[in-house]
Structures are given as C-alpha cells and as structure tokens.
Amino acid sequence: METKSLRRIKLLIAYDGTPYLGWQVQAKGQTVQGVMEKVLSKVLKERIRLVGSGRTDTGVHALGQVAHFDTSTHLDCEVMKRAFNANLPQTVVVRAVEEVDTGFHARFSAVKRQYRYFITPHRLPFWARYTWILERELDVSAMKNAAEIFLGEHDFKAFGSPTSPGGSTVRCVYALRIKRKLNRIEIVVEANAFLKRMVRNMVGALVSVGERRACLDDLKASVEEGVPFKGLKPAPSSGLFLWKVFY
Q1: 237, 196 in Cβ contact below 8 A?
Q2: DSSP helix/strand/coil, 65
Q3: Do 91 and 187 belong together in one domain?
Q4: Integer Cα distance of 52 and 137 in angstroms
Q5: Nearest Cα to 48, choosing from 109, 7, 14, 86?
Q6: Is residue 239 domain-shared with residue 117, that is, in the same domain?
Q7: CATH number (domain holding residue 173)
Q8: Which pLDDT tens digit goes with each residue over 71-105?
Q9: Average pLDDT of 38-45?
Q10: What is the largest CA-CA distance in the chain?
Q11: CA torsion through residues 131, 134, 139, 143, sign
Q12: CA-to-CA distance for 71 and 84, rounded, in angstroms?
C-alpha cells in the first residue's frame, strides 16, 4: 500500500489572548492551539497536531507566534492560508504559511524569542485588553538601570518556573529595552527562552523599582542569588505580546 509523503508547514500566527487559557491545549477550557487544531483538521480533512514555538499564558497575546505541523495535503500554501483564516475566529489570524524542511522545529529550531510589554497611564476602554493601565508615575530612568541587572545568563528561579517538571531555570537575556513611545511605556525583552511567568514577573519587578517601592540591591540579589523578590506581583497578562521568534 502506497503511503503519502508528509509536508512540514510553518505558520506565523497572531492572536488576541484575552478569551483563551493560553496557547497550549488543556483538558478543560479554550486555548489557541485547541481552536486552531480543530480548524486546520477540518480544512485539511485529517488530524492536525500543531507544535508551537512556546507556550503563552492565559490572556497573553501574540503578534509573531510560530508553529508547525505535518500534513499529506497537496494544497498550495496561499490557499491554506485563506482557508484557515476563513474558518478561524476573529481573535486568531494566520499571517503566513510556508513549506519548510522536515528538519525544522518551531520550538527547538528557535534561537531567540522577543516579548513586548505595554504600559499606559490612560484609562481608556480600548487600552484595557492590550496594556497595563497604571495611573501612577514611573521613574523610567530607574527602570532602565534595573533592566541592566537582568542581562546575561542567570538562574531566574526567583522570577519563574520551568516549563516542564524538574527543568532548568537558567536562561540568557540578550536585551531588555525600555522606552516611552506614543505616550506609553514599551518594554522589549529578548532571551534564548523564557520560564513560566518570567516576563510578567520581570516587568512587575521593574515597575516596583519605577514606583520606588524596591531598590536595585534587592533586584540584584534576586537575579544573582535567587533570593525571592519581596512583594513581587506579576504584571497583568493584558499588556504582554509574544512579538517575534528568531531562527
């Protein structure tokens, strides 16, 4: 019996994470991966299993999530893109479809991820889903000084948990930039990979410094010695975007 050869397809995906319990399929609750697998399976008329570049938590958004799947379909990539988007909810969009070598892996081939976090002081209804509305003045200069402490390879156990039980909590942060843009504060962080809630905890710590509720020495001890950061609260998921994955 002749078997069909499989093609590996790479997707670039954007989604509003507000109504979802994160990216990864769960036993209960709606997830981005779960919704997409149902649609792709329906369109391609075969069981599709998506592999994402990484998990995003409940309520976290993405502009540049990457995923791959294997399929026996002969459909053209542009045809697949149109068919997927015609069936997906408005909260999820496939931005690009590309056939890649079977050696490509959305997660393990990635060399760097970039997240962006947005903070605004303006309480406006259309900001609520996509920013942290913080009606307090922040010392951005102090936050920039604090950001330098996160740079490099560290054990970030005080700022997140491993993605799998017993996994390493060591990560390398390549860049952490903070700037005011369009009356908002934008925080850009790049690393080889991230722990669960790592970015949101980092932002929460930076905001504590910006509000003068914490000092640089406290943050340095947490990063370099793994000492719990006193009073640390993760930033809300609403302001966080998986912006880009680098290969």
Answers
A1: no
A2: strand
A3: no
A4: 37
A5: 7
A6: yes
A7: 3.30.70.660
A8: 999 999 999 999 999 999 999 999 999 999 999 99
A9: 98
A10: 70
A11: negative
A12: 14
Active-site choice (16, 57, 70, 217) = 57
- Containing domain of residue 197, as a range? 112-246
Residue 142 and residue 230 in one domain: yes
pTM: 0.93
Cα–Cα distance measured from residue 147 to residue 243, given in angstroms and rounded to the nearest whole number: 19
Specify if 242 maps to a domain: yes
Which CATH number do you get for residue 39? 3.30.70.580
- Counted domains in the chain: 2
**Of 70, 100, 130, which residue is a domain's last?**
100
pLDDT mean over 104-127: 94
How far is CA 11 from each of CA 25, 95, 125, 153, rounded to the nearest angstrom? 17, 7, 31, 30
> Residue 239: which of 172, 163, 185 has the closest Cα?
185
In sequence order, what are the residues at sequence separation of 6 or more whose Cβ sits closer than 8 angstroms to the Cβ of residue 95? 12, 13, 14
Amino acid, res. 148: E
90 contacts: CB under 8 Å, gap ≥ 6: none
How many CA atoms lie less than 13 Å away from 12 in the CB half-sphere?
15
Closest alpha carbon to 198 in 235, 241, 159: 159
Q: Is 57 in the active site?
A: yes
Contact call for residues 204 and 231 (beta carbons, < 8 A):
no
